[in-house]
Design a protein that fits this description.
By secondary structure, this protein is mainly β. About 10% of the residues lie in helices and about 35% in strands. Strand 5 and strand 6 (about 105-115) form a beta hairpin.
Length: about 180
């Protein structure tokens, strides 16, 4: 028995499959940034839908953190800060690059991290005129351990207690051994 496949049949099958996938993703919540949590029981970041003015904001205040659910911040608008709003002169070692603000209350920036290091960041002081961010490099090398000779940029995310606005971001750095 021969079967003739027409364009109408192909389109019908594709539309049926697409409809099933759409229904499945709706039922499982895939693609929805509304309630995203990080793996390992970390903090949850909830993002409200965009308002008519185009702004989005976290639904509940959270403490400053560098561990934010993957993809939660990407739903917010990112603005690269001008050099005049960033002061990295007191950051010894590796200075942060590509400093951005997302959703008004999240600072995002890249900082170099070497093989036996872990980098973290937090807002240590926030005033009406400036936000002080301390970048901590923790050296994880133990004894005569060999460390890979590789340096990579890792993104850091710092949540602010209030929108950045025109405040200056001042970076400090410190190194610890852990």
């Amino acid at each position: 028995m021969t079967r003739t496949v027409t364009n109408r049949t192909v389109v019908s099958v594709l539309l049926g499959t697409l409809g099933a996938l759409l229904a499945l993703s709706t039922l499982t919540g895939c693609g929805s940034p509304a309630n995203t949590s990080s793996a390992g029981g970390g903090p949850t970041v909830s993002i409200e839908p965009t308002t008519p003015g185009g702004s989005t904001a976290p639904s509940a205040p959270a403490t400053p953190t560098t561990s934010v659910a993957p993809g939660a911040i990407s739903a917010l608008a990112h603005i690269l800060l001008p050099a005049s709003q960033v002061d990295a002169s007191s950051a010894t070692g590796r200075a942060p690059t590509q400093v951005q603000v997302a959703g008004g209350t999240y600072l995002l920036f890249d900082v170099e991290q070497a093989g036996c290091e872990l980098v973290s960041a937090q807002a240590t002081d926030q005033t009406a005129t400036q936000v002080v961010v301390t970048v901590t490099t923790t050296v994880t090398k133990k004894g005569n351990q060999m460390c890979p000779m590789l340096v990579r940029n890792v993104q850091q995310i710092v949540e602010l207690s209030a929108p950045l606005g025109s405040r200056t971001v001042v970076f400090h750095s410190q190194t610890t051994h852990g």
